[in-house]
Amino acid sequence: MYFGGSNGIYRYDSVLQTLKRLAVKNLDIWWLFFKKNIYFIRFPSLNAYYYHERTVKPISYLKNVTVNQFVFDNEDNLFFINGTGLYGIKNGESDIILMRDNPRFLGMAANNKGHVYLCSENEIFVISKMIQKVKKIVNIQGVLGMTFDKDNNLIYSDSREIIRLLPVSKSFLKL
Hints:
By secondary structure, this protein is mainly β. A four-stranded antiparallel sheet has the order 4-5-6-7, with no helix packed on it. A four-stranded antiparallel sheet has the order 8-9-10-11, with no helix packed on it. Strands 12-13-14-15 form a four-stranded antiparallel sheet, with no helix packed on it. A hairpin with a 4-residue loop joins strand 5 and strand 6. InterPro entries: WD40/YVTN_repeat-like_dom_sf (IPR015943). This is Ommochrome-binding protein.
């Protein structure tokens, strides 16, 4: 498990129950996730980087682009959000495609199958694989961020609490 903060990137060892900083100094981490490498956004520049073999490297096709959050899907397409909208870059290409400029997206996460979800203040969306379409899946007031647990259940937060959404059986819905 990795953590980012104003003093760098840390790795948590659950066996030893220790937190160790990676061998990189002067990092203020805005956003962090792991997929093959450790990917992150530096603050205050809001530029995207990755950590590989004890070295910090910029993500070349996002150089000089403001990025609030970004994730990769299961086909290694990159999606990112900033103050002007949701953007995508197809794997193996460098063209940045504006996918949607509203609503204002506040958070994003890829589930365990690599499907990309986004949240705005009042809604949660999923990006459709086949046509790269953004589809609203639920209205929820006050969503500020989200992630997925090991069983692929959506976890989201608002200003007061953290909520885990669990599937409900069809027989329960008929009651």
